[in-house]
Amino acid sequence: MTTLSAAEIRGRRQWPLPKLADPTAPLLEVRDLKTHFRLERGWVRAVDGVSFSLADGEALGLAGESGCGKTTTALSLVRLLPSNGRIRGGSVELFGIDLVPKSERAMLRYRWREISIVFQGAMNALNPVTRVADQIAEPIRQRLGQSDKTSKRRAAELLDLVGIPRKRLGAYPHELSGGMRQRAMIAMALACDPAIVIGDEPTTALDVMVQAQILLLLEQLRRDLGLSLILITHDLSVIAETCDRVLVMYAGRVAEEGPVDRVFREPRHPYTQKLLGAFPNIHADRRTLEVIPGQPPDLVDPPVGCRFAARCPFVMPVCTEVDPPEVRLEDGVRVACHLFPPSGDAA
Amino acid sequence: MTAPTLPGPAALSLQPVSRQRFGFLRELLRRPSGLFGVIILAIFTLLALVPDLLVGPLQTAVTATGPRLGPPSIEFPLGTDELGRSILNLTVHATRISMVIGLLATFITVAIGAVLGIVSGYVGGRFDALLMRIADFFLVLPTFVLAIILTAIIRDAIGTGSREIGGIRLSLLVIVVVIGITSWSSAARIIRSQTLSLKERAFVDRARVIGASSSHIMRRHILPNVVNLIVANAVLTFAGAILTETTLSFVGLGDPFQPSWGQLLEAARSTGAPGLGAWWYFVPAGASVVLVVFAFTLLGNALDDILNPKLAGRR
Amino acid sequence: MSLRYLARRLMTAAITVFLIVVLNFVLFRMMPGSPERILLGRTPNVSGEVIQATRERWGLDKPLFPDQFVAYLASTVQGDLGFSFGGGSRGRPVTDVLLQRLGPTLLLFGLGEVLAIILGLALGAYSGWRRGGILDHVGNGLSLVLYSTPYFLLGMGLLIVFATGLGWFPTFGISTVGQSYAGPLDQLGDMAWHLALPLATVALGLVGQYSILMRSSIVETLSEDYVTTARAKGLTEGRVLRSHALPNALLPTVTLIAINLGYVVAGAITVEVVFNWPGLGTLTVNALSSRDYPVLQGVFLLLSVGVVLANLIADLMYGFLDPRVRT
Predict the structure, then answer these.
(1) Are C62 and C35 in contact (CB under 8 A)?
(2) Which of residues 205-234 of C touch A (CB under 8 A)?
(3) Can you tell me the ipTM of this complex?
(4) CATH number, position A84
(5) Dist. CA C317–CA C75, nearest whole Å
(6) Whole-structure pTM value
(7) Are A66 and A234 in contact, with CB atoms under 8 Å apart?
(8) Nearest CA to CA, how far is A38 from chain B (Å)?
(9) Which tens digits make up the pLDDT trace of A219-233?
(10) Which of A15, A60, B116, C258 fits as disulfide partner to B188, beta carbons 3.0 to 4.6 Å?
């Protein structure tokens, strides 16, 4: 895959980059992100030192069991956290601008215009008492300062783009099917022509046929608009079909990360292997996470060493003593497991 | 994820209720609102239990010794009423009457609500639909006016006179019953919806499969699981019952021979205490009502939070 | 709004009113003791003629059903609710007595409700939005105290402070006794002066409940997914609240306020007693003390129908506010 610089992105964007943007920096660079939640009994280390990058036009899949921190990671990018959530370390650089130290007010500038989110539209992510078209037009008017007329027109175009018939323009969310609502949600995410679109389980809760249609639409939009995509899902087959790279998380940390075909063909981390059910050919059949015996550790007081150790079939004495370092292997796969020591010799 | 452990036969009668029955007390006392509620409850319970020890027997027009409508003094810390009786004496004795009426009315309200709620939810079908229609009807109705009329009619019809049952005058017992039959509907609705969700749970199915009768299931399986809800609801109902009794007494349905807080307030108003500036006549009884209702509302909300974790976080 | 929704609501309201009429009938005929005695209450010195007239009028010597019931239904529909037996209004048609008292009550409670709804919703929305803030704690505590205070007690408190103590407002009535007015404006001013305290009492009494309702509704709404969506859009907090949280939070509040009305209005009639306001509340208490059952029956019917109507209006408003019930 080719990596476009921010300068090249500028040519395609309808809206100018933020003033402080570094034209040579990568699109998104997350380093050692730590997002914790305050509870009465202490801080829950939901995301505890996660690093990754996203190149322009790339699609990255975030995978892992529920509660592993994948959604928190994505929402931390625009700091859309519950009131007890806090980013307690690391950096999130968009065009070289670190978003972590930004004030809440300054953060508004980056939400939706630079990073938008496709929530589960089939559920309750659309305001039930407002017309869908108005909800799509809202950020165009509010955030881009467009006139009422222009934003309505653009909303109509966007609905066209995601395949919602013109005559449904005045519809309320409850008048649309689950698939239609998800399409509308996607149209809404595209409203400000953002640099990055995050899909938070965009196909969950839809039936299989509709899921396929939505995935097809996302593929199409990616191709046509050159979207940069972060896709959160527990459905590995969705990542296999849609993404370039995959990041597997376990208990708030990166277990394994790399190109989809490498990771799915030859999973290195025992957790990834478990996730994939030890079947190398993921493209052949659709599967969701199979149940792995045992439970993820308590993230208020995580154990020393590898967090997967308690459930790992290959556990060694070192695993419960030392945190496994993240190692970049020759084929571009990054893995954090003592089976792959930093020397580079894969066991 | 662990595989669910299958319950043995003993678990069939024991149910998931066993979640630390008494742990919640500590939990309750840890919250400021819960602690406040418990303290107020303790104080007023003490007043209600031994009024004679604290302030002597209830004063009457005959035994009154003070000046008419005298302001607070050393001899009469809360002043006197228009007959020269000590307001402190009257208010402490009224505590007993108000609390007892509140308690009995709560018991009737919650008992009706629980029975109708459980049966309606469990039996379902037309019976349920009809009962809930009636509950809705009562919810919309100006129940207070209904209560006024019912109290008056029942008293006229049975001729209460000066009869007593268990030391409580019949006229006050009529109020108790009337509060019960006009305020059961919200308790019934809440308990019904909990019953509906319990009905779908596995342990009820198991009981049904092994041939338990409906009444057995309702008593032994549903009831223990809605007890928490009933307790929290009862505490809130008590607050409401005190308010209703106070208001009914205020419009003239109290009993001067067994004065409640509401009866004292009515006496204060008809004497013209507010117009005469005699604040001491109604402030003690009024403050008692507000304090008790406030404390019980806080307590009920705290209990609701603790006993029904589903609702936690909403407040 | 769909015709079916409208029809269903109208139907429910009609059935409720019918049930109220039936309840009224049952209350006074099926109680133990002779119906004459209950219908005439404990009114002293009732002449034999009056008893005879009552008996004939309601057909008390005929069977309960259908004769008595049909007679009762027919006269109720025609607005004939019988005659008052009470002190001041003895012998006058109940309907006349009620209508005469309706105006002052509507004025007091109409204004009080409007004030309380505006203040309560604003206060509740703000404290729910700033959950955990100082105003939330203070407002929440104050709301609960107001909720715990019987309306009449609040009235007595305001009366002793602002009328007896400070002398800013009159202590009773709707107008100054024996006053001659320079003009209609003068008269209106006098009425407003008399209205101030009872109005403040009603509004304060209700504000706590409405604020509690709105607060919990806003708190619940703020945790909805669509509010997260609105925040993700980079909208300011104010706009998230105004265009996403509030319109949704209002929905359950409208219904709850309407349902509460039956409880609230009836309890709040006691305010009239404190201030001697010549409305349905004082009428009720006077009728009660003279056991003027026809009037009590009439008040119950009137208030019930009023509450049912208010609920109907709330339902229609709901249909207007929420597109989901329109179709």
Answers:
(1) no
(2) 224-226, 228-234
(3) 0.84
(4) 3.40.50.300
(5) 33
(6) 0.81
(7) yes
(8) 14
(9) 888 888 888 999 998
(10) B116
